[in-house]
Amino acid sequence: MAKGTLPSSGGLSAKAPEERRERILRATVDVVRTRGFAGARVSDIAEAAGTSQGLVLYHFHSLDGALDAALTLLEDEFYDDLARDLQEQAGAVQRLRHMADLGAGLGPAVGDWRLWLELWVRALHDPGARETRESLDRRWRTSLREVISEGVAAGDFAPADAEAAVIRLASLMDGLAIQLALDDPDMTTQRLADLWWDAAILELRMPH
Amino acid sequence: MAKGTLPSSGGLSAKAPEERRERILRATVDVVRTRGFAGARVSDIAEAAGTSQGLVLYHFHSLDGALDAALTLLEDEFYDDLARDLQEQAGAVQRLRHMADLGAGLGPAVGDWRLWLELWVRALHDPGARETRESLDRRWRTSLREVISEGVAAGDFAPADAEAAVIRLASLMDGLAIQLALDDPDMTTQRLADLWWDAAILELRMPH
DNA sequence: AGGCTACCTGAATGAGCGTTCAGCACGGAC
DNA sequence: GTCCGTGCTGAACGCTCATTCAGGTAGCCT
């Protein structure tokens, strides 16, 4: 209806369908964020996107299709954000510090940790989600590994076991983030960033 | 039917209903373990317990009631197992080492980590689950805190910041366990225990 | 014996929800 | 103009599943 009233406003009309699709994708992410994968309904998505249920299915074939597409979008954005953000930082120490902030949610990147929790549980039962979360994890760990290597080469870090440090620091971030995601009263983004940074100092034998 | 054929075999008949209830509870835990909270159906529970759907609802009023009861059972057993297991160990170092094994799933206690993952996500949306998981977390952290205090008093540990060490070691266990729960090919129970133990050495400045 | 209560069952009920579908609007091709 | 493909909608359709319920059995009290 609203579309019919604005039929010929330039070449935008050709892009309109794609915009709709995009809007539905965003809405799907939002719904998963608030309702969870298990609680996401086609009607929720349609309402959040301001469209009909039919259109959601028209674009994505099924509810699972929409959820999968949202997952893929999330993965791509996560990686793009991460890569871009890290490139802006100079030096291994700066980059590592930035990763602490990113993980804590202080920075612009890295979507809500609640989504990650949801992804983990979905991965327990859904092969596609499993792959996505493994890929996500691998990318994060790879970035961490590169930063640490860089720091070792530059003489900033001197870890006893670099690979173990990578896994532990990545895992620690996950574990701390759980409390953040669950609104544990003892955890804040700042505290998370500090706790993780101190662990990094310990693991990497940084002179501080 | 099977019950009708064995009517008067001693005083056990009086306990039979309670046994049935217990069986359903166990079945509920099993179903959650395999299907997840979101995928658990009354029919699954009934089938796993070898009873009718009606009886599940008779004893627990609703599906959610059964799930909640299973959660409570899990929490109680977790704590009992943990307390008993730790009491058997002598000295802070032994106890800490044992916690590494327990968390990794090498010991007898601590149910499947998949259940914990499920619990976390349920806690995102269900207040009861949130309370259970907070209680569980608190208990585990308290045990860890006590062991560390004991070790500090005995001169075994010398952490720079004992409270930060508690939170980090507890969180690290969670983070490592996620990979175990998700069958990450890079993670095994032994590796988890080793990685955690090395982190403890680092955090607590243990002489090794 | 008669009745009361706890335990248990299988079928029926009804709500919620994913998916399908008949059809409308519209813009471009011819 | 007519035709046709794409985008889109709202109303069914049909299935799954939690919950209800009428009834059946067995022990226990009086």
Mean pLDDT of chain A: 90
Secondary-structure element sequence of chain A? HHHHHHHHH
CATH fold-type name of the largest domain in chain A:
Tetracycline Repressor, domain 2
The helicity of chain A comes to over 70%
**Low-confidence spans of chain A:** 1-13
Structural class computed from helices and strand pairing of chain A: mainly alpha
Produce a short descriptive summary.
With 208 residues, chain A is an all-alpha fold. The first copy, chain A, contains 9 helices and no strands. In chain A, helix 4 runs antiparallel to helix 5 and helix 6 packs across helix 7.
Labels describing this entry:
elongated; 208 residues; 9 helices; 2 domains; homodimer; mainly alpha; Arc Repressor Mutant, subunit A; Tetracycline Repressor, domain 2; DNA-binding; disordered N terminus
Structure notes:
The structure is a homodimer of 208-residue chains. In chain A, 75% of the residues lie in helices and 0% in strands. Chain A has nine helices and no strands. In chain A, helix 4 packs parallel to helix 7 (127-154). The first copy, chain A, is an all-alpha fold and 208 residues long. The first copy, chain A, folds into two domains: 9-61, Homeodomain-like (Arc Repressor Mutant, subunit A, Orthogonal Bundle), CATH 1.10.10.60; 72-204, Orthogonal Bundle (Tetracycline Repressor, domain 2), CATH 1.10.357.10. The interface between A and B is large, with 39 and 39 residues. Chain A binds a DNA duplex (30 and 30 nucleotides) through residues 1, 3-4, 7-8, 13-14, 16-17, 20, 41-43, 51-55, 57-59, 62-63.
